[in-house]
Amino acid sequence: MILAEGNTSIRADAASFWVKASGQSLHEISEQGFVQVAFEPILRALDQRLQDSEVKALLEEASLARNGSRPSVETFMHAWLLQLANVNVVIHTHPTDCLGDLCQTTAPAWIEERIFPDEIVCCGRKAVWVPYEDPGLILAKRIAERVTAFIETEGEVPKVIALQNHGIITLGETGAQAMAATRMTVKAVRARHLSTAISKPLSRTEIDRIHVRPDEHYRQRMLWGASGFLSSPNEGSRSGQDQQ
Question: CB burial class (10 A; 0-12, 13-18, 19+) of residue 101?
Fold first, then answer.
């Protein structure tokens, strides 16, 4: 973990959610490191053009239980994503391996390409690509546009969103689901880095087949329910960079 990178959120109830406080590190965060925020004023802001000072005031207005802290500037995208079907948890991280690819001028191959079955099981058939935007409200608007287009095209909510020059976002009904997508995305990127070229990515037919197989859905539920999944050491970890 480097500094206070990344942020996470979880739905509290129909009207509010908890989001990481600004400046808190995910590495050793406690309950005191989160702020409870009301959905309504944050979602309303997505239809507005606000100055930085107005954004700050709005975040303070929407905070229900602050513990003396201010919610993350990325609170807007968390609020919007938590409105999607079966999404209760959002994880936003900056894994080193992924960032190397995300700083390219074009989307890396792993946005749409898949090279092994568990990448499909945990990360879906493809990810959403979001070109670089100023973090905060502007980025949240662009994410909403790109994810809406993805849902209209693919007929499902994405599991992974890739932010150019920034990081990744993973979505889940539970924390285990969102973390599985995070860790499997990092694993897939590392697998690609082991070779200068992937000789045979899975075909679209093969990807679609894995995506709907009943036995893979069973394995998916078992993976998400594994009690040691969230606390186990990072696969192939290099200085804990999966958690950045």
Answer: middle
Residue recorded with tokens 């890396």: 108
Please name every residue paired with 16 in a beta bridge, in sequence order, or none if there are none.
38
Domains of the chain: residue spans and CATH: 1-83 (3.40.225.10), 87-244 (3.40.225.10)
Residue 98 vs residues 9, 188, 203: alpha-carbon distances, Å: 21, 9, 23
Question: Which H/E stretch holds residue 39?
Answer: helix 39-45
CA 104, 106, 112, 113 dihedral sign is negative
Give the type of residue at 234: N
Q: Which residues pair with 71 in a beta bridge?
A: 21
pLDDT, tens digit (0-9, with 9 covering 90-100), for 165-220: 999 999 999 999 999 999 999 999 999 888 766 667 778 787 787 777 666 555 55
Q: Is the pLDDT of residue 243 over 90?
A: no
Is residue 228 packed enough to be buried (19+ CB in 10 Å), middle (13-18) or exposed (0-12)? Answer: exposed
